[in-house]
Structures are given as C-alpha cells and as structure tokens.
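Blackboard transcription, Thursday session:
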Amino acid sequence: MKNDTIVDFKNIFFYYGEEPVLENISFSIKRNDFIAIMGPNGGGKTTLLKIMLGLLKPYKGTVKVFDKEPAEGRKLIGYLPQNVFFDLSFPINVFDTVIMGRYRGPVKKYSEKDKKSALDALGTVGMLEYQKRHISMLSAGQLQRVLIARAITREPELLLLDEPMASVDPGTQESIYELFVELNKSMAVVFVTHDIGAISIYIDRVFCLNRKLFYHGPKEGSLGKLKEAYNCPVEILAHGIPHRVLERHKK
Amino acid sequence: MEIFQYEFLKNAIAATVLVNIACGIVGTYVVIKKIVFISGGISHAAFGGIGLGYLLGVNPIITAVPFSLFSALAVGLISKRSKLSEDAAIGIIWAVGMALGIIFINLTPGYAPDLFSYLFGNILTIPVSDLYIMLAMNLIIILIVALFFKEFNAMSFDEEFSTVVGIPNRVLYLVLLCMVALCVVILIRIVGIILVIALLTIPSSICRQFTYNIKKLIISSIVVGIILTLTGLWISYLLDLASGATIIIILAVVFLFSFFIKKAFILAKQLKNKKFV
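(Written on the board underneath:)
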C-alpha cells in the first residue's frame, strides 16, 4: 500500500483562551496502527481527539482525516467519548444506544441491515444478551463495551477511544484490550489514557502528550519481549522514575 | 355532575388535553436533556411578550409567541457561541424579559386587565380563540418531534457522539428551545408564567421513574398530565382555590408519592433477591 496515512496532523496549535493546550503537534496515523496517546490530565489528549473529529478547530496548522477535512473524514471514524459525562439515568436501552452509531441522515428509518449490524457489533463485544437492558443496569466495563459496539457498528476504518480503561477494573481492562487487538485486525485503533498502567504490549507506538508531543516508536526495545521477560505488566514508560526503559524525550 | 354543564368547563377540559400533549412531548426532552432551568428562563422572559401585547392592544398570547421564540434563540445562541456561561445567559434573559414586560405595562395607558391571569393562570377563563392557537402549536410540536425523533433522542443522550455521526445538534438544540418557547406560550393561560415550569417538568419526572423507553415516557407523561390537571381543576373547584396553583400542588404530591412507590419497589426487589442468595 502506497498512501496508507489515514490521519495527518501538521503543526497544530490550539488554545483555550490564552492558555496553550497544544503546541506544534505533528504526527500521522497509518492504516492498522495501534497507538496509545498518554499524558496527564489537562495535557490536551481529548482536545487532540476532538480536533481529529472536527469537533474543535485548531488555531493554526492543518489536519487531514482520510485525506479530507475532519468534519468530512470523520464518517470513517468510530468514536468512544469519555464516559464520565454520561447520564446513566437516560431512558435508553443497550440496543438503542448501539444503533445510534448507524445514523446516516434525517428522516430515514434504521433498516434491517442497520439492526443486524448493531446486533453483530454487540456480539463482537460480547454484550448480545444484554441488548434489552437499560444502560443504568450495566457495570462500568459492560457500558464501555456497549459504547465500543456503538463506535464499531459504523464499520469505521479508525477507532478513536477516549479513556476506554477509566473506571474499569484491571481484569476487565485486560479483556477490553484483547477486544482492541481483535478489532485492530480490521481497523486502526487509537486510544488516549492518563493511566500508565493501561499501556500494554500490543501497542505499536506511544505518543506522550503534555502540550507538546513526544513520540516513542516501535523499535524502542521491542515492547513484547519486555512482558515475556517479566511475565507481568511492565512499567514501560518512565516519566520521572528511575527505572527507564524507553528513550528520554529529546527537548 | 353539575360542573360539566358549563361551556367554560368544556373549554377548560379541551385546554387541559391540548396543553398536556405539548407538555408531555416537550417536557420529556426538558427533563431528559436537563434543560429545566433554561425553560424556566424562557417562560419568565415571555412576560415581556405579554406586556407588549398590552401595549399594542392585541391578544398578549400572540405577542408572547415571537417574544419567547426570540428569548429561546437568544439563550441558545449566547450560551453556545460566547464565553458567557449558560446559566448566566439564562439569568440575564430571564430578568430582562420580565423587566421589559413591566415597562411595557407601565407604558400602557389605563390599567391592565387580567394581568393576574397571565402570571398565575386561569384555566377557567380560556377563550375559544386561544384553544385554536394551542391546537396549531401542538400540531407544530408533534410534527417536528415525529420527523426528528431519532435525532432528538441521540442529541439528548450524547451530543458529541451525535455530532460525529452527522446529526446537526446546534440546529436541533435551538429547535428544541423553540418548542419549549411554544409550550410556554400554550401554558401561560393554564398555570401562568410563574408556574409554567411545573407542568413542563413534573409529569415527565413522575413517569421517567417507571419507564426506560422514550416513546412510552412521552405517552405516559401526556396521560398522567391530563389526569392530574383535571384532578387539580376539580379540587380547586371543590375548595374554591386558584386552579393553576392547585394543579401544581397535586402534581407535586403525586410526584412525591411516585418517588416513594419507586423506592419501595426497589427495596422489595432487593429483599426478594436476597432471599434467593
């Protein structure tokens, strides 16, 4: 494949008022990438995703998503928002939540194909039996799976996940990871997290974001072997702790 | 029963049905999208329109329509586009609308008849012409929600995600606020500006405890609203009290009851589950 860049950020700046949030961010995402964007709260991770989705416009710089403007290119993106903002008492069940992802335009009813696709997505995330359940009756991990199903039922080529591991217990985190690995076979997966422990061996590349972007490529001490060596989740990033495995950020 | 012999009671019953259809639909979105305070602001701002009606010497309900539509759009645009926080925008529109109303009435020569009925409502004095206005607004509201049901639900649940899938949230949100404005105008006659918010929120708040389906929530809110409004009307007749205020007290009492019933329900379920464990 020649041109397999699906997202391209060039010299992006973003400010909230006077406060710089993103400074000169450039990177690209390729087809079937599996990327983690890490950084502290307030480091600009969600802002970065929102720019990718065309929900926010950068102050300076150019963004291309599938070679188009983000608002156009986002049709091929499946999105999992940060679920801390959900109103769990909202009157909606699992199936109706997922089929929202099949929305294609006003007045059109959801077709049989849409319904089948929603059910398939629920099957993929292992939540099919809960389809009639109200969202308040799900655990945090189950809700996360439902929202992932909603994102993938669009049949996206890029899956953007905002803090998918937040409020999910470690055991469930592991199984959600396995799900991402499975999904990564057919689409690029990008997720953001502030939790260092959420980074696992499956990731191709790690972006560290705290206003500026630092990049850890795949060749840095093959991450997979680390896990084999220690036979446990390894602290692979060492921002400010003595045990350093990845290279230091170049200033 | 003798009270049903009167013409004005037939009008009152027709108004009750019409008002509760609008409230059941719009109130459901007001409650699930949590825009109760915005709706309160829009309803109070409508007083400016009432005052304008007095000043121009036309039916105040007619001038209240553009006035509350305007304040709905103003709240929606100010809060979404500018740095001003939403609740500050609401507070300003709320007070400015009422202030304009007072000034308009000041400027009106002579004295303002029925002013109280706009502030506190009087379902028993509704003229037939107002019923037609209500009917027209109901049809508009029903048509809009029927056409964009999916979109309204998606927007209310998750604005960000629905924007990403291509739902024009901004426009829909303004349309929703405009429907609130229409609803407010319909309600002014029944319960008055000050009490509008109750009929817009209480029936849906009662019903949402018992259903997780938006269609059922809308329909049950309409039915509950009609029953409770008529009950309130009847009790106000028996006790010779103001109809608007009585209706609201009835709504509030039933809400309180429904809350405890729901609690008892949950408790019973938990106890039952424990037995089997």
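Lecturer's comment: The CA atoms of residues 114 and 277 of chain B lie 64 Å apart.
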